[in-house]
Amino acid sequence: MIDRVELATRIEVAFPVGASAPVESMLLHGDECHDCSLLAAELKQWRHLPVTRERLVILARIQPHLTPKGWGWFVSKFLRDVVADDNLSNRIEIESLIYFLSPSAANAEEVRVVLGELTERQLEVLLDFQRWIATNEFWRDYLGHDIAAAVEFINKLLAERY
Ligand SMILES: [Zn+2]
Predict the structure, then answer these.
(1) Residue 128's closest CA among 12, 7, 14, 4?
(2) Across the chain, which distance is largest between two alpha carbons, in Å?
(3) What are the extents of the domains in the chain?
(4) How far is the CA of 30 from the centre of ligand 1 (A)?
(5) Ligand 1 centre and the CA of 159: distance in Å?
(6) At 7, is the secondary structure helix, strand, or coil?
């Protein structure tokens, strides 16, 4: 079973810190979308600043509006923050991520596209993250079924690559 230190190392290797992309390349929709225009205004203010918990919550909520580039940026910040946190209960953005990665049949294609630019190694780290979060009692009790569905979904994406 993967432990916190090992997971942190894998995150650092798979998701190297890069410069933040232009805001327009991170969002799927233009001004006609309420969530995208709100987030564009937010990102223009703070995308070069450290991503606080509050900001992670905002990003997690609007995951379906992020481009593959935007989502990759979000998840690299998310994983680093969560793996360093000793108190994982009550973090709404973990719930959002688990739900996002365990889509219904109707939403699966949309999520597959968002994850389309991740490398195999990055997908494997997402898998490691699900397995690690399943060792947390709170999350296993609360969303064990959805975590298992996320593992299945990511495994399916990996199987398509090989
Ligand atoms: Zn949108």
Answers:
(1) 7
(2) 45
(3) 4-13+22-161
(4) 7
(5) 29
(6) helix
Distance from residue 41's CA to the centre of ligand 1 (Å):
13
Give the distance (Å) from ligand 1 centre to CA of residue 131. 30
Question: What is the predicted pLDDT for the residue at 161?
Answer: 86
CA of 132 relative to ligand 1 center, distance in Å: 31
Q: What is the pLDDT of residue 44?
A: 92
In the chain, at which residue ranges do the beta strands (DSSP E only) sit?
none
Give the pLDDT confidence of 63-87 residue by residue, as tens digits: 999 999 999 999 999 999 999 998 9
CA of 114 to the centre of ligand 1 (A): 13
* C-alpha 148 – ligand 1 centre gap (Å): 28
pLDDT digits (tens, 9 = 90+) for 12-22: 999 988 777 88
Cβ–Cβ < 8 Å for 47, 23:
yes
Closest CA to 151 of 139, 132, 138: 132
Mean pLDDT of the region 83-103? 94
